[in-house]
Amino acid sequence: MRIATAAAGGLAIAAVVMGVLAFTTGGDGEEQVAAPPTATPAAPATGGSAPTGLAVWVAQGCGSCHTLAVANAHGVIGPDLASSLKAVPASYIKESIVAPNKAAAAGYSTGLMPGDYASRIAPGDLDRLVSFLKANARR
Length: 139
Description:
disordered N terminus; 6 helices; two-stranded antiparallel ribbon
């Protein structure tokens, strides 16, 4: 009886090991090498032309802190830009990006947003981002 129990236990362990090997080697005993992950573009493809305002938004990671429905962004650190930028001039939006510590939206404090966007975002890209935000602020 002990031999049969030991044999059954050994078979159960062997079955588990074979199952694990099948999942990790593809089932044929050959080690499978995973294909390298493909890079996911940080922004929508622009076909070699200047990036769109949305592409700049994505590339700069704005949605990790801010909410903006049109960009499917739900950040909670900064304000919802669709509502906080309504009825403000483009110059205010631009200044809020390049000099974020000058003023803060109601209910938020300064010092949370990085202050290097003036040097990090190319002037043309900054203009496209500002236009994108202005166009998508609730009026």
